[in-house]
Amino acid sequence: MLRNLSVGELTPKEELEKRIFNLKKKMEEKGVELSLIIQNVDLFYFAGTVQKGALIIPVDGEPLLFVERNADRVRYETPFDFIPIKREKDIRDILNERGIKGKTLGMEFDVVPVALYERWRDILKIDNVIDISNEIKDLRLIKSPFEVEQIKKSGEVTSHVLKKAKDVIREGMTELEIDAILGAEGRKKGHQGFLRMRGLNQEMMNIYITHEHSCTIPSSGDVPIAGVGITHAIAQGASMNIIKRNIPVLLDYGGGYNGYITDETRAYVIGSLDEMFRKPYEVAREIVETTMVFAREGINGKEVYERAHSLVKKAGLDDHFMGHGRGKVGFIGHGLGLEINELPVITPRHSIILKEGMVFAFEPKFIFPGRGAIGIEVDFIVRKDCLERVTDAPIDLVFI
Amino acid sequence: MLRNLSVGELTPKEELEKRIFNLKKKMEEKGVELSLIIQNVDLFYFAGTVQKGALIIPVDGEPLLFVERNADRVRYETPFDFIPIKREKDIRDILNERGIKGKTLGMEFDVVPVALYERWRDILKIDNVIDISNEIKDLRLIKSPFEVEQIKKSGEVTSHVLKKAKDVIREGMTELEIDAILGAEGRKKGHQGFLRMRGLNQEMMNIYITHEHSCTIPSSGDVPIAGVGITHAIAQGASMNIIKRNIPVLLDYGGGYNGYITDETRAYVIGSLDEMFRKPYEVAREIVETTMVFAREGINGKEVYERAHSLVKKAGLDDHFMGHGRGKVGFIGHGLGLEINELPVITPRHSIILKEGMVFAFEPKFIFPGRGAIGIEVDFIVRKDCLERVTDAPIDLVFI
Question: Residue B6 and residue A228: Cβ atoms within 8 Å?
Answer without folding.
Answer: yes
